């Protein structure tokens, strides 16, 4: 069994910064890609950052230059550094990790979600 635990959300003023973390634990053989998504009220969940197993990041234009995704493979942890936050960044943020357990095919696992609120 694999679990992802997120931390680091909260309330911040526009222009401020937050750092989210997402740690995986359990029976883990290998972790592949890691991602962060967000979902605002009444909107679909959207990808905000993705990092490959080799460390190559990708971002949509909406967060490029403001958000940075990174990973610590030794800790099975993915981070999202969010700078220059805007009110439109307000959402519940979810991490996703593609993980293979011992003897199992890779599967996608999700964190519980953490609220990020940016006040104007």
Description:
- The chain is mostly beta strands.
- Helix content is 0%, strand content 57%.
- The protein is built from no helices and eleven strands.
- The strands form two sheets. Strands 2, 4, 5, 6, 9, 10 and 11 form a seven-stranded mixed sheet that branches. The chain has a four-stranded antiparallel sheet with strand order 1-3-8-7, with no helix packed on it.
- The N and C termini lie far apart (41 Å).
- 32% of the residues are buried.
- The mean pLDDT is 96.
Summarize the structure in short.
By secondary structure, the protein is an all-beta fold. The protein contains no helices and 11 strands.
Defining traits:
mainly beta, 120 residues, 0% helix, seven-stranded mixed beta sheet, 57% strand, single chain, four-stranded antiparallel beta sheet
**Would you report the number of β strands?**
11
Helix/strand structural class: mainly beta
Main sheet specs:
7 strands, mixed
Number of helices: 0
Spatial separation of the terminal alpha carbons = 41 Å
Helix content: under 10%
Low-confidence stretches: none
Compressed to H and E, one letter per element, the order equals EEEEEEEEEEE
Shape: elongated
Beta-strand percentage? over 45%
Mean pLDDT: 96
CA-based gyration radius: 14 Å
């Amino acid at each position: 069994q694999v679990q992802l635990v997120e931390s680091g959300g909260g309330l911040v003023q526009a222009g401020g910064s937050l750092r989210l973390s997402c740690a995986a634990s359990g029976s883990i053989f290998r972790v592949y890609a890691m991602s962060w998504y967000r979902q605002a009220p009444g909107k679909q969940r959207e990808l905000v950052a993705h990092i490959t197993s080799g460390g190559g990041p990708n971002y949509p234009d909406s967060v490029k230059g403001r958000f940075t995704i990174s990973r610590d493979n030794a800790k099975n942890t993915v981070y999202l550094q969010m700078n220059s936050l805007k009110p439109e960044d307000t959402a519940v943020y979810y991490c996703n990790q593609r993980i293979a357990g011992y003897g199992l095919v890779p599967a996608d696992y999700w964190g519980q979600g953490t609220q990020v609120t940016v006040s104007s």
